[in-house]
Write a structure and sequence with these properties.
The complex is a heterodimer of chains A (450) and B (241).
Chain A (H helix, E strand, L loop, with lengths): L10 E4 L2 E4 L6 H10 L2 H4 L3 E5 L11 E7 L2 E8 L7 H5 L6 H6 L7 H16 L7 H29 L3 H22 L8 E2 L2 E2 L7 H24 L2 H7 L7 H7 L4 H4 L7 H4 L20 H28 L18 E4 L2 E4 L1 H10 L1 H13 L6 E4 L2 E3 L2 E9 L7 E5 L1 H5 L3 H5 L4 H11 L3 H5 L1
Helix pairs in contact in A: 5-6, 6-7, 6-13, 6-18, 7-8, 8-13, 13-18, 14-15
Chain B lengths: L24 E8 L17 E7 L10 H14 L8 E5 L2 E5 L5 H10 L7 E9 L8 E9 L4 E9 L5 E3 L8 H12 L2 E3 L29 E3 L2 E3 L10
Parallel strand pairs in B: 4-7, 8-9
Antiparallel strand pairs in B: 1-2, 3-4, 5-6, 6-7, 10-11
The chains are: A alpha+beta (450), B alpha+beta (241).
Chain lengths: 450, 241
């Protein structure tokens, strides 16, 4: 189709200057259009609106780029296209239902959203010491599996955006394996709402440990493929090295954490420095790089997946010893009463539990009813328990007024904070490098806009 | 009264019902009823119940651990930096320390917290707004979480502003990371951060009326019909006050 036939690819004059609408592969119309203009205005700056619907912007991110030739002189982000009011919605549900909402924020790392919120609630309830060991180990296991799947998507989409399509296909191939494990353990591939105040929703299903072990064994074969494809690939390195540089001072000033911070050589990882959920008892290393650029961030993520595999193996060994141990806090005033079971038509309420509350125990019925409809009360106060998500420090500022609903839950999402570095990472560079720089931040728009 | 000891202590003597000593809690508002019933439909008998909503009150010295060290260093350096002697109200709850700072002091306090070697809070985890409609004269709170990587410590700063004058000084000059965070808090709560380089909406559209996460802003929603029954929107459902 020629550009003149395209309804959306015409050009128009406004008070701000000539406006071109480009939908892809018709840059010629801009070149021709600029050539046809008188010299004076053709020399002026070009402002390019990239997104919010664009395959290379990592989601519904709008980039406003001011160009001089192919050099970016100013870069700004427009966000908010995925704002769904999750924080506000959480104020109208019970404390347990809050997990169902916040898991949807950063959709590539759902367990981390759940975890930081739940840790805040548990701190306010003052039950941090009562969480059963098995629940803690399962949380660690799920989070580390999630770190692998999240890093895989980062590397895969980052590869796709620079044209390395094989990296994309193998990245999503492995991620699918992790999602299968999630489905086996929680019942869902995404949006699990599995980590609950007091523990986790249910025990490991039979056979899960074998699946996890065979996944780890397979990943140990597959992870070197990424290294073989990328680490020394001259095209890959040429695109990533020295792009999106941000040194330690810049990271701290702009609040960047996670792989971006560690790529400057600073080994800050909350799992080591402020451990939670028993991370201090696992043997793993904090991975760093010293180039502070996109290539370094890629290498940090690749190395972190190996560390996650180490943690998963240790967690699986512990779970093998904890067969049959409780996964929910013993306090019946907090523990979710309903139990799930697999029936002939899929997962649903456990018939044993229904029989117990409907036929055997009036008190159990009352407990079930009160906890499920009204929920528990959380003592008034506020808590902030950040965790190390795949993208950096993820924390939930949880405020209670002593009621059955969160008074306020605010999420400090690392994608939101890290995306602020777009300007400093890409100004002065080439247009093509903007994409690489943003991909190295790994923003997830669901988390940015919440 | 008989000389027999009652088998159970009276309700007001049982430990969970002992009123807190003065100064240990801070009342913000009152909770009424228990089951969310309102008006004549409430047959629970609990409709007349009123309970004070209390938050943890001011902590007394010594705070314990490194809290005293930070509080001393902050007080001393803030005075050196030109703040007239004003001890911030300190709240310690569940192992987290909160400094309640006067809003006019915030820029100096933030700078001191970042630069003073004994404090060195290099990283600000952003600002979170909270709207307490019942906290008369200080309805809007801005809560900052600061992290010192040097000393591996975390503190919280809390600043308040009344609804009638929703201004809080910006600390973007000290913590550039707060640029977007302050824009978000302005967007959602209407807190105006004076001195912010470009305080515009960030998540909501530019022409959006109101500030959605304030408590007086309705959640919205429509009733949903399902199999003949109608489910009201979440903010109209029973709320179990």
């Amino acid at each position: 189709m020629s550009t003149t036939d395209d309804l959306y690819a015409g050009s128009s004059d406004t008070t701000e200057g000539k406006v071109f609408t480009v939908t892809g592969q018709d840059w010629d119309s801009i070149v021709d259009g600029l050539g046809a203009m008188d010299d004076e205005s053709a020399d002026e700056r070009i402002v390019v609106n990239m997104g919010p619907q664009h395959p290379s912007t990592h989601g519904v991110l709008r980039l406003i780029l001011e160009l001089e030739g192919e050099t970016v002189t100013e870069a700004r982000c427009g966000i908010g296209y995925l704002h769904t009011g999750i924080e506000k919605n959480m104020e109208y549900r019970s404390w347990v239902q809050g997990v169902t909402f916040c898991t949807r924020m950063d959709y590539l790392s759902p367990f981390y959203n759940e975890m930081t919120y739940v840790l805040g609630v548990e701190r306010l309830l003052d039950i941090e010491d009562q969480i059963p060991e098995k629940a803690q180990v399962m949380r660690v296991l799920l989070m580390e599996l999630n770190r692998i799947s999240s890093h895989l998507v980062c590397i895969a989409t980052g590869g796709m955006e620079i044209g390395a399509l094989t990296v994309m296909t193998i990245g999503f191939r492995e991620r699918e394996l992790v999602l299968d494990l999630f489905e086996l353990i929680t019942g869902l591939r995404m949006n699990h709402a599995f980590i609950r105040p007091g523990g986790v929703a249910q025990d490991l299903p039979p056979g899960a440990l074998d699946e996890i072990r065979s996944f780890v064994a397979l990943m140990k074969k597959r992870l070197p493929e990424y290294a073989d494809l990328c680490n020394a690939n001259p095209i890959f390195k040429a695109r990533l090295e020295g792009v999106g540089v941000l040194d330690l001072e810049g990271c701290l000033a702009l609040g960047l954490t996670g792989p971006v911070l560690r790529s400057t050589g600073y080994p800050w990882d909350l799992r080591k420095t402020q451990p939670y959920s028993g991370y201090e008892t696992y043997d793993f290393d904090v991975q760093t790089w010293d180039t502070a650029d996109s290539y370094g961030r890629f290498r940090v993520r690749l190395a972190e997946m190996w560390e996650s595999l180490k943690i998963i193996e240790q967690a699986a060994d512990r779970l093998a010893r904890l067969d049959g141990a409780p996964v929910m806090v013993a306090d019946k005033k907090i523990a979710w009463p309903s139990q799930l079971a697999i029936g002939s038509d899929g997962m649903g309420n456990s018939l044993d539990h229904i029989r117990h509350i409907m036929g055997e125990s009036m008190e159990a019925l009352i407990h079930h009813f009160k906890l499920v409809t009204e929920g528990f009360r959380v003592p008034a106060g506020q808590a902030y328990v950040p965790i190390e998500s795949p993208r950096g420090e993820l924390g939930a500022h949880v405020v209670s007024d002593g009621g059955t609903r969160p008074f306020r839950a605010h999420f400090r999402d690392p994608s939101f904070t890290n995306l602020q570095a777009t300007s400093v990472m890409s100004e002065g560079g080439m247009v093509a490098d903007v994409i690489v720089a943003i991909a190295s931040i790994d923003p997830v728009m669901g988390g940015v806009d919440r | 009264m008989s000389d027999k000891t009652p088998e159970q202590p009276a309700v007001e003597q049982s430990p969970e019902n002992v009123p807190a000593p003065v100064g240990e809690v801070r009342q913000v508002g009152v909770r009424q009823g228990m089951f969310g019933g309102r008006g004549t439909g409430d047959t629970s008998g609990y409709g007349g119940l009123t309970q004070a909503i209390t938050y943890p009150g001011e902590a007394q010295r010594p705070y314990g651990g490194w809290f005293d060290e930070v509080a001393d260093a902050l007080e001393q350096s803030a005075t050196e930096a030109g703040l007239e002697a004003s001890t911030p109200r300190v709240v310690i709850h569940r192992g987290e320390i909160t400094f309640h700072v006067r809003r006019e002091d915030l820029p100096v306090v933030a700078k001191v917290l970042r630069d003073e070697p004994r404090l060195r809070f290099e990283l600000c985890s952003g600002v979170s707004g909270v709207h307490y409609p019942a906290d008369t004269g200080a309805e809007l709170h801005a809560v900052y979480h600061l992290l010192s990587m040097t000393h591996n410590r975390r503190i919280r700063l809390e600043v308040t502003a009344p609804d009638a004058d929703p201004h809080i000084p910006s600390i973007v000059a000290t913590y550039p990371t707060n640029d977007w965070h302050e824009r978000e808090t302005f967007d959602m709560f209407g807190i105006v951060f004076d001195g912010h380089p470009a305080l515009t909406r960030i998540l909501m559209p530019d022409d959006w009326p109101g500030h959605p996460q304030r408590k007086d802003y309705p959640l919205g929603g429509i009733p949903v019909e399902y199999k003949g029954a109608t489910v009201p929107p979440p903010d109209e459902r029973r709320s179990y006050s």
